[in-house]
């Protein structure tokens, strides 16, 4: 289990909480504008939650181990069985932490988001990766898209639970078929994340409805075509020189390596980006299976490292002449 912490001070009478993303932004801006005077007015937030996590055996995930690991990213991982309670959604109150599978952070980190960039999360629900993107940097614009209406409500609730008012203005939520995004916003984004609909092995394996499970298995053969169409749309929405990360939570080669190979064989202006270094750096916390691709890595659940499955591939749209 991983906690992506949006640090906050204890609830005041007004129930307001400090967001680490905004605080980091203020630190950069006001320390320059106000100098020493900023130290007298800056927000202070306690570290009680983090201290409690350390006492329970949690440790920081990948802190400082990747050259592009953002200092603002605060994620904690436990290798021992321990379940943190989920915080209830309360309108007007921001939550202090978000629970997610540790491997879900790898696609976000691979995107290398920088302050001011325009970023698209094409299949954004339930919203955990969108929140992690906001921990990485202060984007100029974050577009969170989700076509499924039920999942869209889940996404909106997630954003309402974690995003403070100063950040709301840089976020747009839409319900567009992801396959149409490229035509709607061509060459708009610096970074695009395609966390594609997939077989979702872990969830499917524990399905309680055998009829629904059988239906899902029969539909599985149609997923690669959808994933390729989503990637084609994402490439069209990506500006030249921009980065695209594709991810799934399945072990299926047809939905992972084969999809990426098909896209690379179809585009002259899309090139693979080597991410083998990420696998080497993260091997202490994750187990990786070979993919046969320098641009792709596959996290597999293992004893003591039960994260994943998670496939991550990184591509770049080059300039054409």
TrEMBL record:
Per the Swiss-Prot or TrEMBL record, the active site comprises: 249
UniProt cross-references to InterPro entries, sorted A to Z: MeTrfase_RsmB-F_NOP2_cat, MeTrfase_RsmB-F_NOP2_dom, RCMT, SAM-dependent_MTases_sf
Q: What are the alphabetically sorted keywords of the record?
A: Methyltransferase, RNA-binding, S-adenosyl-L-methionine, Transferase
Specify which residues bind S-adenosyl-L-methionine according to the UniProt entry for this protein: 123-129, 146, 177, 195
Q: Name one Pfam family in it.
A: Methyltr_RsmB-F
According to the entry, every stretch annotated as the SAM-dependent MTase RsmB/NOP-type domain falls at 26-318
Record's family? Belongs to the class I-like SAM-binding methyltransferase superfamily. RsmB/NOP family.
Q: What is this protein called?
A: tRNA (Cytosine(34)-C(5))-methyltransferase, mitochondrial isoform X2
Protein encoded by which gene:
NSUN3
